[in-house]
Write a structure and sequence with these properties.
One of its GO terms (cellular component) is cytosol. By secondary structure, this protein is an alpha+beta fold. It has two domains: 245 residues, BirA Bifunctional Protein, domain 2 (2-Layer Sandwich); 44 residues. Helix content is 36%, strand content 23%. The strands form two sheets. Strands 1, 5, 6, 7, 8, 9, 10, 11 and 12 form a nine-stranded mixed β-sheet that branches. A three-stranded antiparallel β-sheet has the order 2-4-3, with no helix packed on it. The longest helix has 20 residues.
Length: 317
């Protein structure tokens, strides 16, 4: 018997639909005078985020890493004087392969100089709306979605309160004293699935989840992270920041991430000193967002398994 695994998983029609989506995305940015840039997939540094694992590669006798996002390279371009830019290319993350994930995937990332997170949310809604017919568009703060769905203020609720609600609503037996762990459980397992079919933009995350975003103060006087996430049908599509421009603060956050990785017995990766130097030299005030193109294609085609939209998913490479 001859194996058919050499064949693509995606139909030829799906291959064409992907090409049409790419053409539409490039036209969207061309009309707005945002320049496409080409950055490396390999780097001598890797992401420090404890929730993301990089993929190693041995190249010319050196240990390099496949990039989980073009962000660091793009910020170096911004600091060097580029205007508004975008990248439509592959990204790589070591982890799950299945219906919604593949270790190699397509990411659209773009940066707007002089914009904040609120203005960038408008453009994210425009782009997604140009690709998918949306039944509604909502813009809600992180506090609002928690209060609406759980009756909790996530910024002031205690670890015990969050843990109690999570154990009531989810099948969880383990223990943890990290507030962000429980906030993430409630967000991903309880709130996200109930966000509805339309586009929901959630903003003003807890300050402890700022990552590469700057901090601000909301209308209630609470310190928050100026970042947002975009969901359609309860599926996360995009993650955006009003970017942190302070090199010293960013260096401290990266070191804090590495300490968390060490505490969790996760691999330690080299910090990208070029990024710190670029921010120190002067990253312009800007907002940026990364969007999962394969998930967007799932919405445009109505296909709910990413493997049916990839010519050769993980199982067939």
């Amino acid at each position: 018997m001859t194996s058919s695994d050499w064949r693509p998983s995606a139909t030829l029609d799906a291959v064409q639909q992907r090409a049409e989506l790419y053409r539409g995305l490039r036209e969207f940015f061309y009309q707005r005078q945002v320049t496409e840039v080409d950055v490396p997939s390999l780097s001598r540094a890797a992401v420090s985020d404890p929730h993301i694992d990089s993929i190693n590669a041995q190249v010319c006798g050196e240990a390099l890493y496949l990039q989980t996002s073009p962000e660091f390279f793009m910020k170096r371009l911004l600091a060097a004087g580029c205007g508004d830019i975008y990248s439509l290319n592959k990204a790589f993350r070591n982890g799950e392969a299945g219906r919604r994930h593949n270790p190699e995937f397509t990411m659209l990332e773009w940066y707007r100089r002089g914009w904040d997170d609120q203005r960038l949310m408008d453009e994210v809604a425009e782009l997604i709306g140009a690709c998918v017919e949306l039944s509604s568009v909502q813009r809600l703060s992180y506090r609002e979605v928690f209060q609406r769905e759980l009756g909790l203020d996530p910024h002031i609720a205690s670890v015990g309160e969050l843990q109690h609600v999570a154990r009531q609503l989810c099948d969880i037996q383990w223990d943890d004293d990290d507030r962000d762990v429980w906030l993430d459980v409630l967000m991903t397992h309880v709130i996200e699935p109930g966000l509805g079919d339309g586009l929901v933009l959630v903003y003003d995350f807890p300050a402890s989840q700022a990552a590469l975003a700057r901090l601000g103060v909301d209308a209630q006087g609470q310190q928050v992270a100026r970042r947002f996430e975009a969901y359609v049908g309860g599926v996360e599509l995009a993650n955006g920041y009003w970017e942190l421009c302070d090199g010293q603060e960013q260096a401290q956050r990266l070191q804090s991430d590495l300490r968390k990785r060490q505490a969790l017995d996760l691999p330690q990766y080299p910090v990208d000193q070029h990024l710190i130097e670029a921010l120190t030299a002067g990253l312009p005030d800007c907002a940026g967002v990364a969007l999962g193109v394969d998930r967007l294609l799932m919405l445009t085609t109505g296909i709910n398994d990413i493997r049916q939209l990839l010519a050769f998913p993980f199982e067939r490479v």
